[in-house]
Amino acid sequence: MRRLAYFFGGAAAAGAGAYVVVYLYRWQWQRAILCGVLLLVVEVMLLGIVLLGRLSRIEERMRESDRRQQDVLARLRQDREPAGGERFRWLEDPTSRSYVFVPVLMVTGVLLSGLAWLVQRIASATARPSAERRLAGRLAVLAAPDPAGTADLDDLPRVGARRGRRGTVRLVAVGVVGAVLLAALVGGLAELTQTREEHVNEQEATSVLVRVDMRGQGMTQQRQALAAHQLWERCRDSTSAPLNRATLGSLGDGLYAGVVRPALTDHDRMRLTGCLEDTSIDRAHLTVVGVGDADADDD
Q1: What backbone torsions phi and psi does residue 121 show, to the nearest 5 degrees?
Q2: pTM as predicted
Q3: Does residue 288 lie within any of the structural domains?
C-alpha cells in the first residue's frame, strides 16, 4: 500500500512539475501557480507518509523493547527456590552405602578428554585456516609499512581508500553527464521563458480571433461583450511593447476579432495568447481561435 502511495504521489508530483514548466512557457501564470500549489501539496503528502512510516517503526521498536523489559522483570521476580532445599540428595544419605558415581564420572571425564584431544588433532591436520586468512586480509590495511621498502609514507594510499580506477571513472562520468544535462535544462528554460530582443515584424498589424464562453443562466449579449472587452483590456499590458492601438470588435456567435498595431513579434504573440486564455472574469473565459498578421489592405 505504501509503495502504491509512493507511485501515485511521485506520478502526481512529476505531472504537476511538468505542467508548471509548460504553463510558465505559455505565460499562463494562474495555471502555473495552481500547479505549483498542487506540487507542494503532493510533496508535503509524501513527506508525511515517510514521517508516519518512520514513527510507526519507532513505536514498534519501543513496544518490542517494553515487552522484553517486562519479560526480564517477570523472570527476575519469580519466586526463588528456598535456601534449605535438598539440592544433592545423595549427599544426605548414610555413608554406609556404596556408590560408584564418582569413579564413573572420573573415568567418563578421562575418556571424553581423550576423545576431544583426538578430534582437535584431526581438525588441526585437515582444516584450512580460511577464517584467519580472511581476518588477515581485512587487517592488512592496518599493518605497518615494510621497513625495507623505499616508498615514502606520503605516497602510500590512505587507509580505506579505493585502489581501483573504475569507481573513480564512473563517478566522474556520472558527474559530467549530470552537469551537461543540468546546463541543457537551464539553457532550454532560459531560451523559452526569457524576454529577449527579437526581429521587428514588418507587417502592419496582428489580428486575434477569440471566442467568449459564458457559464451560468441569464448571460445576455451585453454581458458577453462587456466580459470580452474587460479581458481584452486586462491583457493589453501583457506584451513587451504597450498595445496603444488595439481594438476589439464583435463578429457574432460569441466570436470577437482584435486588431493590434503595430504587428506583434512571436514572443509577444505567445504572451498575449497566454494572458487571454489564462484570465477569467465574471464566469467568462476566452479561447484564442487564431492569431495572424494582416496588411493595411486587409482591414
Answers
A1: -65, -40
A2: 0.45
A3: yes
